[in-house]
Amino acid sequence: ELGSTLPAGANHESTPATSSLQSIFAFFLPSCFPDKIHPRFIPMNIAHIELANGRTAYQPGETIRGFAAWRVDRELRRIVLHLSWRTEGVGTRNSGLAGQIVVDNPPSTGKHDFEFTAPRMPHSFAGRLVSILWTLDLFTEPETESHAVELVISPTGAPLAPAPDTDGSEK
Fold it and tell me: How would you class 151 by CB atoms within 10 Å of its CB: exposed for 0-12, middle for 13-18, buried for 19 or more?
């Protein structure tokens, strides 16, 4: 518990009314909650993506919402959020960018809300030979910190799987 490591006189309360979003925001942006966290316990360079309701599975056309938070020890040119897919497995590797948000000249400590629309294709897929994976990435430039969150985008909300052959094996 962080509260047990705070200096004497510092106050760190954990109440049911404190949401996880506030806790994470307080960790990354302590000036908003100066009485909760002592600055010496906060790493200088941090980047984090928080998805609304902690949700990581979406159907095509749904809105992917959340925020990016960062704190770095130097001036930034920009922060970039990428929604992208890639293949993994045997054969040729492919990838694609489905969406991008760029914030130019952000402060060295900040928070930015984002929204993407989950693309219609390709769907998340988990096969024996190849898989299609979706990722939401946060980068700071110049590169100091980054963070990635794996997503699932499919009509079922789960990675699609190959259909079994009539003999029971995967196609």
Answer: buried
